[in-house]
Structure formats: structure tokens, C-alpha cells
Amino acid sequence: MTRQKLGQHFLANPGWRNKIFDTLDVTAADTWVEIGAGHGEMTEPLARSAARVLAIETDASLAASLRTKTASWGNVEILEADVLRVDFARLPGGKFRVYGNLPYYITSPILRRLFDAAGRIASIHIVIQHEVAARIAARPARRDYGYLSVLCQFFATPKIIFKIPPGAFRPPPCVTSALVQMTLPGEGASLRVADPARFMDFVSRCFGQKRKTLWNNLRGLVPEEKFRTALRSCNLRSDSRAEQLSLTQFAALFRAISAD
């Protein structure tokens, strides 16, 4: 499969590579996991400054080329693998930081995979489609706010650092990109959610049909009277919609509905 079919756009412009690298604040003690290493556009600057780099690349020919290129560096390991099959929680070593120029069409699945290992990750720095970046950083009652916003803000504190034009890449994408920084842990660390996976399933159902009320989306999950009581205990209106709720309110409603 070609890189174009894989959705990868290489960060070819050295000026933009340097600008991104300057935001990473790489230290000599860092271990970095790089997703979509490509030709090593960011692997090389990371390796010059960090203790260790694990570069993940799914394309066999690119992975082989990277092994040859980095063989003498001593602190780079090339992992030829589909990132969606990598178990980040089982990677050797302690905490690590993540950089990735992500294929746009699988940004969300990659983030969910990373968040499964949230306890191992200190920060995530990703180049993604700007439209998706806006959804990640959106706050309640904003047009872009949705399940992805809650997921990312539960596990991390996201921030859009800057936009990146199509001309920074080869081949150029048809959309504007953005660098997003996420510092872990996120807001979820203080919300007393005992089962994050079950909580995120609940949030997903709340957003099932975005314009419908919470009750219409959760109908069948909980008896109506219990649901109405839970809403009142959280000071939420009966016609509340998911797009209006903060993470704190989602957590409170989840606890109220889950209580025996």
C-alpha cells in the first residue's frame, strides 16, 4: 500500500520541522515514541536531543530505510508495526512522550489507543487536521464540542499550538493542519471515575444523536424515573443535551445513574 493510500503527508519543509521541534522542549532524559516516522523527518532531531526514540512505521520499505539510517545513532529503535496494534502500555521502560504526524483518517482511533496507556504517557504532541484539532480543544456549548472533546479532555489537557499550511507537506493535503499538545493527566484525574472505559461508553451514548436530549439518547439504559432523579440531583434541566455538559457534569450524572 502506498503512503498516499495510508493517508500520510510527509513534513518536508525544514522550517516547519524546526518550528515544531522548538515547541517540544526535548530534554536529555526523555524517551520519545514517534508515530509515523516516515523518512525520519522528526526522528533525527528527536534522537539528537533525547535519551531514546522508538519510531513506529508501518511501511516496510520506509522502516528498512530508517533502520539503515539510524543504525549508528545508538538511541533509536525502529518498530515496523500498525500503530493501532501497538500495546503502548507494554512498551519497555518508564514514562514516555509521544510525537506523531498522524494519518488524518485514523486520528481518533490512534488517540483512543494512546489513552489506553495514559498512565505511561507524560505528553502527546500531534500534527493533525485542524478541523479535528478544533474538536479536541472545544469547550461545552461550542459547535465543535462532542465525544472526542470529552475523551481527550478527560485524559489530557489539550492545546492547539499553531496551524500548519498544506505547503509544509509532501504531498500537500487538501486541508490545513495543526500541532496539538496534550499534557497528561487531564481533568479526569480529579473526577473520581472508578471505571473510565465504562464512563466513556456512557459519554458516547450521550452524544449518540447530538441534537437529541440526554434522555432520548439514554432511553433504555436506565429507568426514566431514576434518570429524572439523577438529572435533578445534578441540577440539570430535563431537556439537557450532551453538547451543553462539562466533563464535571458528565461525571456527576454518570455517578448518579450508576448508583444502586
Question: Could you give a quick summary of the protein structure above?
Answer:
The chain is α/β, with parallel strands linked by helices.
Largest sheet: 7 strands, mixed
| Class based on secondary structure composition and strand pairing | alpha/beta
Tell me the fraction of residues in β-strands, as a range. 15-25%
Measured as a percent range, the helix fraction is: 25-40%
Count, helices = 10
How are the strands of the largest sheet arranged?
4-3-2-5-6-9-7
Low-confidence stretches: 1-5
Distance between the termini: 51 Å
Number of strand elements = 9
SSE series: EHEHEHEEHEHHEEEHHHH
Features:
260 residues; alpha/beta; seven-stranded mixed β-sheet; two-stranded antiparallel sheet; 10 helices; 9 strands; elongated; disordered N terminus
